[in-house]
Design brief:
The structure is a single chain. The chain has 783 residues and is of the alpha+beta class. The strands form seven sheets. It has a seven-stranded mixed β-sheet, with helices on both faces. Strands 21, 22, 23, 24, 25 and 26 form a six-stranded antiparallel β-sheet that branches. Strands 7, 8, 9, 10 and 11 form a five-stranded antiparallel β-sheet that branches. The protein starts with 41 loop residues before the first strand and ends with a helix. Pfam families: DUF229 (PF02995). Keywords: Signal.
Amino acid sequence: PSLHSLSLSVSLSLPPITMHRLLSIPALFLLLIPSVITDEVTISTTIKPTTTPTNGTVSVAHAEAIGTTTTSTPILNVTDAGVVQSTTKHTPLPSVPGDGVVPSTTKRPHILNVTAAVVVQTTTKRPPIRNVTVAAVPASTTKRPQISFHVDGFAPNTTKPTPTIVPLHKLNPKLPEKRKGDIFDSCKLVDHEPWDDELKSFLRPHYNPLDKCNRTFKPLTQLIEGVLDLTFGAALEGGYHCEGRCLIHLTDYRYHGTAWETLPIMPACDVVEARCKRNGSNAIIYNYMHTQIMPVKTNFTTKVKANHTETKSFKPSVYIVLFDSVADTQSIRSFPKTIDYMQKRFEATRIRHMNKVGDNSRPNGYAFLLGEIAYTINKDIFGVPPLNGARTYEQSCNKAMDGEDKSVFARYRKAGYKTMVAEDWARGVFNYPKCVGYNHKPSDHYMRPFHLRLEEKTSPQLLKDLMGAPGCREPHMDLMEYMNKFIGAYPDDSKFGFIWMSVLSHDDPNLIFHADDYVQKFFEKNAEEFDNSFVFFMGDHGLRFGRQRNSAAGRREVNNPMLHMIVPKTIRKSFHPRLDANSHELVTMFDLHATFVDIVDYQPKINFTGHDFVRIPAATEGSSLLRSLNPSLPRNCRSLPIPFDYCPCEFDTKSVKDSFTAWKMANYVVELMNAELGSFNLSDCSILSVDKKPDVVEFIPIDETHLYKIEFSAKPGKGRFEALLRTHDPTNATSYALASPFFNRLNAYGHDADCINRAPQKPFCYCKNNLDKKSSSREMKKG
């Protein structure tokens, strides 16, 4: 029989030493009633400590939860993947060092008494919240940068209930569900100064990591017109015995190295490795990688000429050049010569208000490359239903993408384009943390074996050095040279080329400045091709870590990736008015995906004359930037697929001066973090507490919005976090509720969480053994 109501009152007496575990009890936050109970169930639980709470304990007075029929599915284990040199040998990818956050040895302060919040589970089914991806960073300027990573977000969690995001009208019944004058009904966008005074202290425009590289180094081998051989200088010098081999793609984690052959050879592959010895010696003195484009045949070709007249056969090439973590205004600072050249030579359009839809590379990559929502976009704070993805995290991560490939790579390949894809980090957008990715090449030309070889544990240090900074090379050069060769390989075909460069720009904004000359020359070299193509010079999000990120300008830039667009010269005059208008509107990665689909599937059918909005089924929530934007979607964060955490609209706020309220709010958030760690039995993680006075701002309410943003540091570990709370009474902790499901980490955590494997909790886990290491270090210094 169905249960219509249930009331339960429980009184527990627990010693204070166990009180810090209380919030790990799921019932204190929300109870998921089994699916057999179809009606709403209310449970009231009262927990009373036997003594007055002391420092370090939490007083929980009351918690309520409304059940839901939502069921949960355990996260599937993701098996380890590796890199091999043959089809029989399997070598795991290297473990990647973190970013060196210095652990804190400061003693944990006392926790203020905190009263549990009223937490309400909505009856709307809500999919899992948390997600994870990474990007790559340089760790050394004296050799090829070693790849390290940050957890770029949170992986979905389907094994436990999550804190509920409560619509305000349920916290305060006096408020109507639909309120007039809500702050989210409009969006104020501001064009900010790229050289903000606040940023100047963080920037070193003249820094060049190659200043001390070996400028005299010259490769001994060359790959020209399909022939791998000694360079003229090496042949003239003599005394070398050199060999070469192909590196063949098998899966995203495996490649096959063919047998070594004495040079000269004609390798029938894109990625080639060379090595040399001195005659009479077995010691390898030279190890290098080359790339080329081995032409492939398809059933469809389209000739695109510079003097083309608009005919139905016109299919312009498309090129995407992406630098990870580069924001719009940052691009003006970091690539001044490149941007100036693009605007003068190609009349490039700067899309000023492109906005990310997720924290990091994975959700944004899924949006513009697949047109998919990678992780649920929670919209409760706006009073509208969440936006759910077509696939669960497990389905997108643990299953190869080949079967139902919805990527723009596949779409353009199917349309007869020659295609090329390259990333400069093996754990790229579709592979982190250990996702299957592709078992077969997603494009005609796929550079992945190049980076599998460089990043595997068995890769010789000599190879890494000569392909890195000691050899005066950087990873973005490898990708841009590969694209140069791709452009030149198919003069009579439409082409789709995509390169994603992470190492240069992901963590340090000062690394980009010196690359401006190189990138400008790349555009100059391909000027004729780009004049007759669509070119997207873009980022996936802004800088996510470091001191600059914690500035006011950094908080703006992180949500606003760069996008500069080139339109083919023959249709530029026709499309620029609409593109210019859209450049000042709030747009998202889904609009960019709609643009890619429009170019390949819709515009060719009408001879590139479409300027009015058209609903593109393959583009989730997106509008082509070449057309009028969807008139039924106001350009604000409520209507568009943008979580409030990443909303660029500028709202009026005021600082909360009451330090007691600020501490109370921050402690509430920290206890939720501790509860989450406890619910997964992550006993190797330290219990967190608030370190130093938190910063709290209140969004000035229209009809009592009562939204607060809390920024605080936690110890041990010195993690910096940001969270959103909603309450109708800021002095009453029982009215607190998370307004967003994220505990946003604002700084890198390095090796702090090496003791656990759960990526969702890594950002706020500080391993206890880090404390032991610090203690041992202090004892050694005393001795």
